[in-house]
């Protein structure tokens, strides 16, 4: 029995420094999912690892991108414009296979994906744990970044995420449920949202939640597999 994926790592020079891409390649790919990490961690995040393990079997090559600040060993993420510069710098390598590229990431990485999607020609955006606002500061909304992505967008959000619970997202109350996702449509914008019940910003669930951590991660991978199939 052969594996569905072959893995490799490459470094890429960008205007923000040296970035690193870890490839998890599908044997018969139809899409590339490029996923960046957040400001508080790297590509070892549970959702990123799970997607890298699950998606190649469904024809999606996963490229986990480490921003230059992380590769350099710094502990504090730089300003958004520097993060965007790093993402722009790796894009040619992400597009090199000649496949449509889904621009994605978790937390700060999701914001980068949204801000640059149209400019870079992304096929779609995957926003994991989108930080809608700083904890306890709902008036500091970043909804404009999400709604301005300009391409099909899937948000996967923990039900207890202090950076923005699903019900806080624009238009959520009027959304339509379909295939496990809530489709939210507004004036000139639309996105899909999947809730991970009881999940926090890292999509961790408490033991009393009635859902195991493995089941919570499966919500993420199953939702992304279905959504990616709709993009092909």
Automatic annotation (TrEMBL):
Gene3D superfamilies: alpha/beta hydrolase. SUPFAM superfamilies: alpha/beta-Hydrolases (SSF53474). Transmembrane segments: none annotated. Residues 30-228 form the KANL3/Tex30 alpha/beta hydrolase-like domain. Pfam families: Abhydrolase_11 (PF20408). This is KANL3/Tex30 alpha/beta hydrolase-like domain-containing protein.
């Amino acid at each position: 029995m052969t594996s569905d994926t072959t893995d490799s790592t490459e470094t890429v020079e960008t205007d923000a420094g040296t970035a690193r891409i870890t490839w998890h390649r599908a044997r018969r790919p139809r899409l590339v999912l490029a996923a960046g990490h957040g400001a508080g961690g790297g590509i070892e995040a549970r959702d990123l690892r799970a997607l890298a393990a699950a998606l190649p079997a469904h024809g999606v090559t996963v490229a986990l991108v480490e921003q230059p600040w992380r590769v350099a060993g710094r502990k504090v993420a730089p300003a958004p414009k520097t993060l965007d510069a790093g993402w722009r710098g790796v894009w040619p390598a992400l597009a090199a296979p000649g496949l449509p590229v889904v621009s994605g990431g978790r937390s700060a990485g999701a914001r980068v994906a949204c801000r640059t999607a149209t400019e870079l020609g992304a096929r779609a955006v995957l926003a994991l744990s989108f930080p809608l606002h700083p904890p306890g500061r709902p008036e500091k909304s970043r909804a404009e970044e999400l709604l301005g992505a300009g391409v099909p967008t899937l948000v996967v959000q923990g039900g207890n995420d202090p950076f923005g619970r699903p019900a806080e997202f624009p238009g959520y109350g009027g959304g339509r449920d379909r295939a496990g996702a809530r489709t939210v449509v507004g004036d000139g914008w639309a996105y899909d949202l999947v809730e991970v019940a009881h999940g926090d910003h890292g999509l961790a669930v408490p033991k009393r939640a009635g859902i195991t951590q493995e089941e919570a991660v499966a919500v993420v991978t199953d939702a992304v597999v279905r959504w990616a199939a709709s993009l092909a």
